[in-house]
Amino acid sequence: MTLVIESGVGRMKMDSKKRIVLLTMIIMMISLFIGCGNNTMNKIYNDDSKIANVSDTFGLDESKETIESGIYKGKLKLSGSGTVWEYKSSTDFDLQVPYTLSVDSEKAKIVLISPDNTVVNLVENTGKATKNGATSLTVPIKKGNNRIKVVGYEKADIDIELHIAKGTFKKIGY
Fold first, then answer.
1. Residue extents of the structural domains in the chain
2. From residue 145, how far is each of 56, 57, 70, 87, 150 by CA, in Å?
3. Largest Cα–Cα separation, the chain
């Protein structure tokens, strides 16, 4: 009988060790997920290679987007980058794009990705320097597939409007 009791105590010690190891692993995984959340998205803001990627990488807390004939309007809380426009051109030319970009908190920018994956900053705005009212961008379109992305940092509170007759607009959110 003594042997059975010792065996039971040994089993209890082993179960406790397994629980501790399991609990430690769970805590490490939760820490990893919390630590990689927005920080990963924020690293995209200054990384042209990630911005130029065909796939979008973003965290979106708010998304109210509309697309009408040649007009994209968005109210976003964005970390990371998302494509809003694509156009396949047969020639090089400069495209005039009326736009509004207002940022209530943090910073955001509108970028062009050329067919060779060169990232051109078209305009950048911060919550400290909010511009209201429409103005115009000169967008250097190249032969091939051109894309415009909106890039936000730290859940940037963005109000954006773009007017482009050519190409195709698409929503960042689902």
1. 2-35, 39-169
2. 16, 19, 18, 6, 17
3. 91
Tokens of 76: 């976003």
Block residue for tokens 């397994």 = 18
Q: Which two tokens stand for residue 70?
A: 């040649």
**Interacting residues of 94 by C-beta distance below 8 A, sequence separation 6+:** 138, 139, 140, 141
Confidence of residue 24 (pLDDT cuts 50, 70, 90): confident
- Domain 39-169 in CATH 2.60.120? The answer is yes
Whole-number pLDDT of residue 174: 66
Over the stretch 113-155, which tens digit does the pLDDT of each residue have?
A: 999 999 999 999 877 654 566 789 999 999 999 999 999 999 9
Selection from 126, 155, 160 nearest residue 41 by Cα? 155
Q: From residue 173, how far is each of 78, 83, 95 by CA, in Å?
A: 10, 10, 26
Amino acid in the structure at residue 100: T
Do 153 and 82 contact (CB within 8 A), yes or no? no
DSSP state of 128: G
